[in-house]
Design a protein that fits this description.
By secondary structure, this protein is mainly alpha-helical. It has 20 helices and two strands. It folds into two domains: 59-92 and 259-387, no CATH class; 118-250, no CATH class. The chain has a two-stranded antiparallel ribbon with strand order 1-2. Helix 7 (93-101) runs parallel beside helix 20 (371-385), helix 10 packs antiparallel against helix 19 and helix 15 runs antiparallel to helix 16.
């Protein structure tokens, strides 16, 4: 008996699985799926066709390569070559994912398929986390319905998990406005996601979600219901006054006592700026180089947790500048400008909203320092870019 394989269906199944497992606990499943996607890609359409399609999308492909290209250049003057290689390995999705998605034909609703899978994965991971927290609470093992403790259950940093929820929420909201999803089950899912955001207590997530809702509402709502663009963000921002978020605004510990979170963040970034000046403002410290001066500066300012845990810049723009200097920052900003103008030209409100979420998260988190951030950005942004590919 002959078994026929539909390579196109297999490709989409593996792509959907690759997106769905990103929010799931750990990173091993995500890595395995990426390898599987690359393997299937080798057999999906002839290489001559891949080259033809990729050449039509070379600008997008080259732009998505910028983070990895900077790391490749930075490895030439790093003070820690071994760790620099690890950093480059972390950034490999900026090559692999655009290569796969920008060299193959796509269905016109590829973004809906990918984000549906991503949202399902986020929902499932959230259910697992909430279920574990409820079990532990009921059996008097402690309260895990808050920030770092909840991250232990989902095996993800809460800031990144909140990013998954924000992107999933914006997708569902967009689909609801366009009447592509039923209100009966979509609204409860959105309420559930907001509840999980409250538990993660990642403050930047509220600002990002509010901004994304405004963008989608302004562009998508064509009736008198445009007032939603103002009311919903206000309601979302109201989460800030709730207990979990108020805990996150409590003073931070230093060697000299407690200071406000704002003051701690101010001294943190001041330390990073001083490190940038010390290493090299123009070309930076190099890929994976030691940051002893930065950690010593944390210590000088008595930022106990910052130097004990060796904090990164907690700002993607400063992180890029720290490693690759002002030249690297300029190229990174060129990448962001290109992507934003591309999505505006495509007239895709969801792409603009999701991309804006990343830009906002970059203000308080170095997303490209973890696999979750690298894979999520490269995969979802490239999916939107791939909408330009036509099935000729």
């Amino acid at each position: 008996m002959r078994i026929k394989f539909n390579i196109e269906k297999i490709f989409y199944w593996v792509l959907g699985l690759s997106v769905a497992v990103i929010p799931m606990p750990g990173n091993s499943l995500s890595s395995i799926c990426m390898v599987g996607l690359l393997f299937v890609w080798f057999f999906y359409i002839p290489f001559s066709n891949k080259i033809t399609i990729l050449s039509k999308n070379r600008n997008s492909f080259l732009v998505m390569l910028i983070p990895l290209a900077l790391a490749l250049i930075g490895i030439t003057y790093t003070t820690n070559f071994e760790y620099g290689i690890k950093k480059m390995q972390l950034l490999l999705p900026f090559l692999v994912i655009p290569l796969i998605l920008l060299s193959t034909p796509k269905e016109k609703d590829i973004h809906r398929f990918a984000l549906s899978c991503f949202s399902f994965g986020t929902f499932l991971a959230s259910i697992i986390g909430i279920g574990k927290a409820a079990y532990l609470y009921i059996n008097d093992f402690g309260n895990y319905f808050y920030y770092a403790r909840f991250s232990e259950l989902v095996d993800k940093h809460t800031t990144y998990f909140s990013l998954f929820i924000v992107i999933s929420s914006l997708f569902i909201f967009s689909e609801l406005i366009k009447s592509k999803l039923k209100w009966l089950w979509s609204i409860p899912v959105l309420v559930f996601f907001v509840f999980v955001l409250y538990i993660t207590s990642a403050r930047i997530s509220i600002a990002a979600l509010a901004a994304g809702v405004v963008i989608i509402a302004v562009f998508e709502i064509k009736s008198n219901l445009k007032w939603i663009a103002l009311v919903l963000p206000i309601l979302i921002m109201g989460v800030f006054v709730m207990p979990n978020f108020q805990k996150r605004f409590k003073p931070s510990e230093t060697e000299t006592g407690q200071i406000s979170d704002f003051e701690f963040r101010k001294l943190h970034w001041k330390s990073v700026l001083e490190a940038i000046k010390y290493y090299s403002p123009l070309i930076g410290n190099g890929t994976g180089s030691n940051r002893d001066f930065l950690y010593d500066t944390y210590k000088e300012y008595r930022l106990t947790s910052a130097y004990e845990l060796e904090y990164n810049a907690h700002n993607q723009y400063l992180e890029i500048t720290l490693d690759f200097g002002l030249i690297g920052l300029f190229l990174f900003l060129c990448m962001l400008v290109y992507l934003m103008f591309t999505f505006i030209k495509m007239k895709n409100p969801l792409a603009i909203a999701v991309f804006s979420v990343f830009i906002i998260y970059f203000l308080t988190e170095s997303l490209f320092q973890r696999q979750d951030g690298v894979v999520t950005f490269s995969l979802i942004i490239t999916v939107f870019l791939s909408l330009k590919i036509k099935n000729d």
